[in-house]
Write a structure and sequence with these properties.
alpha+beta
């Protein structure tokens, strides 16, 4: 179908490792457009997953959906971003396959720009406040020597 062809072009252009499909929904009154893309970069200490689900109703020329983003950064600590964006129902002009995919691309671009602005604010200061730079001891932990550390217990013995 032309919708699958248009969605395929969009997916391969923007999400090179994506898996996607276009199929009738269980109610048969809408068409589901599904996309999943994973990116793993262990050398850079991060992984990410992008998932989107859209429902297109040809009878009313409306489109709605949900975008899920999950990013995990794990160098010198663990930071994870898991977010979901509801795409409210929108009326399309004509409802052609090209128009459906054009609107999806616009929604995804706007959401990516919103996330980028949020990351910019985090890196400019808020993120630094989330983590303590040094442990309570005010010394960095030497992980390769962790077996030699002694854990002190403060408890009921009055210590």
């Amino acid at each position: 179908s032309s919708l699958l062809k248009s969605f395929s072009t969009h997916a391969t252009e923007h999400y090179p490792s994506a898996t996607y499909t276009v199929c009738p929904s269980p109610t048969a009154t809408t068409i589901a457009l599904l996309l999943v893309s994973n990116k793993y970069s262990p050398a850079n200490f991060w992984n990410g997953r992008y998932r989107s689900t859209y429902l297109f109703a040809p009878a009313s020329s409306t489109l709605s959906g949900t975008i899920h983003v999950d990013v995990h950064y794990y160098e010198d600590g663990n930071v994870r971003l898991t977010t979901t964006k509801k795409v409210p129902e929108m009326k399309l002009e004509g409802g052609s396959a090209a128009e459906v995919v054009r609107r999806i691309a616009g929604v995804e671009r706007a959401y990516q720009e919103e996330l980028n602005r949020g990351f910019g604010r985090l890196s400019e200061g808020e993120f630094k406040g989330l983590r303590r730079q040094l442990p309570v001891t005010r010394q960095k932990v030497e992980w390769e020597k962790i077996g030699g550390y002694r854990i002190s217990v403060v408890g009921d013995r009055g210590e």
